[in-house]
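I hope you will forgive my troubling you with a question about protein structure. You will find the record immediately after this paragraph.
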Amino acid sequence: MIGLLLLSLGISGCSDDDQATAPEGKPVKVSFESEVHEPGGDITSYEMVLKLSEQAAKNGSVRISLAGKMGYGQQYYTEPAAQNGVLEVALAKDQNTARFKVHKLADLPNGENILQMILQEPTEGFSLGDPSMSLLRFRKNTPLSASIAFTTATSEVWEDDTDGIELRLELSAALSTTEQVTIDFEASDMLTYGEDYTTDPALVLGQMLLEVPAGETGVTFRLMPVDNNQAMTDYQINLAISATTGYLVKGDLYGHVITLREDDDLQGVVVHTIAELRDTFGQYPGDWYLPEDYYIEGVITSGTNVADGKTAYIQDATAGIMLRFTPSNVLNYGDKVRLNLKNATGNTVNGQKAMTNIVDLSGTLLDEDVEVIPQEISLEQLASGAYEGRRVRISGITFTQANGSNTFAGNRIISNGTFSALVKTYEAAEFATGVLPEGVIAIQGIVGDFGYLLPQRLTSDIDL
């Protein structure tokens, strides 16, 4: 808690010849000396001057409202002290100026050290003149430089530790400016970013850009291995600070080596069917998660027509289900994969059973371009919920909104004359701007969000 200084008010004197006392009954106007005040250099204390139009005929005071992003007692304080954002300045008889001081304690992180002052509520015998508002802007202090370096030279993380490892860079001193540091990642040719490991924040062209906020003494990032479910070997990733900005310089320990340890081979792995996985939802009243290894195998049946970039659908011979990855889905339509759902959560997303927070991003690729034959059902069966997560085909329907210009984008009604359902097309779908076909057709898609039908590829999923 910063102790505020005692009231100190500098009052300028004047001689009898300087200015006459205001005539009786005429209010003396009080105003700021200037509308804008910008002290130069590294000045942290500034005296504000109030001008009186004539010498005051009697004692009085004027209140000054303080506003702006600077926090009283944190970035600045005043003499006299302010209370609840208002300070009161005394106006002395026979004087034609009054003064108060503003002291800067610290810079705002963004450097906008601006204080707005507004005159108000002068006592009897005084009135407000022009300007009655003034801005005080302190320059940001020139920060000292600081070095940044890793805290250790080496670390290791096991492949199945999908939470990853947090690494820290420390500064020799906190800076008053926000700076950036660039870290180069060099991995073995056998490791692929996004498949074998990921980072937070993400890499761009093999580099990570980290922001070091003003006032902070360190910054962290995370590397997460992907358990590829294959018995391989240990690999290393070499990290190096390659660039810094502004007042930040590279420290002595600018390099770091991470070893990715292979956890095990896949002998004896139990693969569960998706039907077994869906049955697990009935064992718990709410959300639940898988604390141990839990493998499923299936074909990715979704493309771009899903809720977002983290979402995919997978299907095996028994059932299908929605998947939500962390941080994003990297699997492709037609990939046959083995996924480990360890630490994934089972819950309801958009009205359907889903496994969320999946960290096994790419799984084990077993095959590519596998086509899942949709099950033929009726429009009435679509609403039963029995086919949730699966690819289905419905024949003999029409788009009721097809008129030669309406597109797939949004929710579109299909009908067989007796029953109706909705076809959902998200804006990201590659065919969102395609025109709805007219006439009787057959349509294929995933039974997905809220029981809507989600086509994935226009050429294969719409039969005219």
